[in-house]
Every structure is written in C-alpha cells, then in structure tokens.
From TrEMBL:
<dbReference type="GO" id="GO:0022857">
    <property type="term" value="F:transmembrane transporter activity"/>
</dbReference>
<dbReference type="GO" id="GO:0043190">
    <property type="term" value="C:ATP-binding cassette (ABC) transporter complex"/>
</dbReference>
<protein>
    <submittedName>
        <fullName>Glycine/betaine ABC transporter substrate-binding protein</fullName>
    </submittedName>
</protein>
<dbReference type="InterPro" id="IPR007210">
    <property type="entry name" value="ABC_Gly_betaine_transp_sub-bd"/>
</dbReference>
<feature type="domain" description="ABC-type glycine betaine transport system substrate-binding">
    <location>
        <begin position="35"/>
        <end position="300"/>
    </location>
</feature>
<keyword id="KW-0732">Signal</keyword>
<dbReference type="Pfam" id="PF04069">
    <property type="entry name" value="OpuAC"/>
</dbReference>
<feature type="signal peptide">
    <location>
        <begin position="1"/>
        <end position="22"/>
    </location>
</feature>
Length: 307
C-alpha cells in the first residue's frame, strides 16, 4: 500500500512528476511479465530515452508506468525511495550533485566511480552509451570555416594571437561552476575580461551566436537548435569538460527480479549516440513531431522493434 501512495506524495509535495498517458498505438501486452516504473527528468532528451526504453520493455511483455519528474534531484529521490525502478542518468551529474565529489575528466573513470558509489545504495549502472550531454563551445559554421577554427585550441590560439576581444555568452550556472569558465581559460591558456562575457538564458544562446551578437557561446552539446541555427561544436581536444555520458540506472532489487531488462536495454544503448540523439531532439523540439511516434520510428528503423 505504501508503494502505491508514494508516487502521489512526490507529485503533490514536490510538484515534480506526472504520469505519461498511454498512446493510441501502444497496445498492452496480453501476458504481463511484471510492472516497471520508468522515470524521466523534464528534458526532451530524457523523454526520448524513457520512451524508447518503455517501448522496448512493453514489447518484451512488461507493463510500464512512465513518470516525468521536475529535475535531477526529484527523480533521484524517487529512485532512492523505490518509487522509480529505472531511469537514464549522466555520469558527472551523479558524481558532482549526488555524490558531492569533484568532477573526473576521464569518461571510463567517471563511469566506474559513480557505479561503485551507487552500488552502496542498491542502484546499478548498466553499460553507458556514447551520448555525452555535456557542455560545448558553439560557433557559426561559416565563421569557423572562414577562420579555420575547428577545435577549442584553435580558438584559444586565435584569441591569443589575432583577436583578444572576442565575445562569449553562457548561462549563469556555467559561470559559477567548478568545471566552468575559469577552468576553460586555464586549460586552454587564454584570457577574457569580464566585459567580454555575457550571461544570458540558455534558450537564447544559439540564437545569440547566429545573430552575431557574440562570437562564441558555451552551451549544451545536446541543444537541437545548434543544427537549426547552422552552428558547429568545437572539438574539446584538451578534455576541459567533464563527461556527462548517459546510462540506464536501475534498482538492484528490480534487476534481480527481472534480469532480462539489462539485456533489453543493452540492445538500445549502442544506438544512443550524439548524432542520433541530436537528430531525434531536432525532430521533436524543432519539427514538433510526436515524441512517441518519433521514438517508435527510430526503434523500427534500427531493427529494435518490428513494424
């Protein structure tokens, strides 16, 4: 009874979650193997990861409840309270925000350490994807080609030798982070005065670069407006940004009860790449396509579901 009441408590007290309604083309399996509750943060990439996972699990005969939470802390709290069985998490989110540790910059080391730490709480990290939802430097594609700037080290050299007055934009969060602007300047050995950096809303970063109001923005590599606004990501050749590799995390008790869930998700994980996720987010956020149909079409295209 307590397990049935807990989701309602989360929704009412945190205003943090909502259940996803069934879609008309999602049919319930005739023989239910078990019930799984999937969680998602309120981000398009998270909706997609939850929806693709749900479609595959339903195809395997599970009844799936989908719950969308307000933010990282809400979905993490739900998992620790055994309300959510499974969701997709990012390595550095766990390392920095849940475990309160300094970021690690080697992707494999970061994954290993968060896996070991979460195992103490009965949370299992399944194999991670290559989708890295991290920070990135964004430039207009035409300017990048004109100046031959393709890597952050190219940009740093250009600032040092040709144009020390280039303007940057980012959000307030990045300015205050331990792994933020000060680390970027230190690792790549260039300087910026306070007047060269403007803090704006994340949603405006790509448009600000496109319009030429700044030369460079530090934004999210997974922003689908990068493609819409004809920008490029500069290669982080000195690994200044910590990895935010996405991976499914599942309660150990749930995995022991339904061990085949790991095999099901391991079929999906190789297809969760930066290129594929940007394409999916572009379809949903920019082209306004239905998220369930977009997810289903992607799974069918990659032979993970039958049409």
């Amino acid at each position: 009874m307590m397990r049935l009441l807990l989701p309602l408590v989360f929704c009412l007290s945190l205003v943090a979650c909502r259940s996803e309604p069934a879609q008309p083309y999602e049919s319930a399996p005739p023989n239910i193997r078990g019930t799984i509750t999937l969680g998602s943060k309120s981000l398009t990439e998270q909706y997609l990861l939850m929806k693709m996972s749900a479609l595959l699990l339903k195809d395997e005969g599970y009844k799936v409840n989908e719950m969308v939470f307000l933010d990282s802390q809400a979905v993490r709290t739900a998992m620790e309270a055994r309300v959510a069985d499974l969701y997709w998490e990012y390595t550095s989110t766990a390392r920095i925000y849940y475990h309160k540790r300094s970021p690690l910059y080697n992707p494999e080391e970061s994954y290993r350490e968060v896996s070991l730490e979460d195992a103490k709480k009965g949370i299992v990290w399944l194999p991670k994807s290559s989708f890295n939802s991290s920070w990135a430097l964004l430039m207009r594609k035409d300017i990048s080609e004109q100046l031959h700037i393709y890597k952050i080290s190219d940009l740093a050299n250009y600032i040092r030798t040709k144009n020390p007055k280039m303007k940057f934009a980012t959000n307030n969060e990045y300015l205050g982070r331990e792994d933020g602007l000060e680390r970027l300047k230190h690792v790549y050995e260039f300087s910026l005065s306070a007047s060269q950096v403007v803090a704006i809303e994340s949603d405006l970063l790509t448009q600000t670069v496109k319009d030429g109001r700044v030369d460079v923005a530090v934004g999210m590599a997974s922003d689908p407006r990068i493609k819409k606004n004809d920008l490029i990501l500069l290669e982080d050749d000195r690994k200044v940004f910590p990895p935010y590799d996405a991976a499914p995390v599942i309660l150990e008790t749930t995995l022991k009860r339904y061990p085949d869930i790991a095999r099901t998700l391991e079929r999906l994980t190789p297809y969760i790449t930066n290129e594929n996720m940007l394409s999916l987010m572009y379809q949903v956020d920019i082209l306004q396509k239905d998220i369930t149909k977009t997810s289903r079409d992607f799974l069918i295209k990659n032979h993970l579901l039958q049409s």
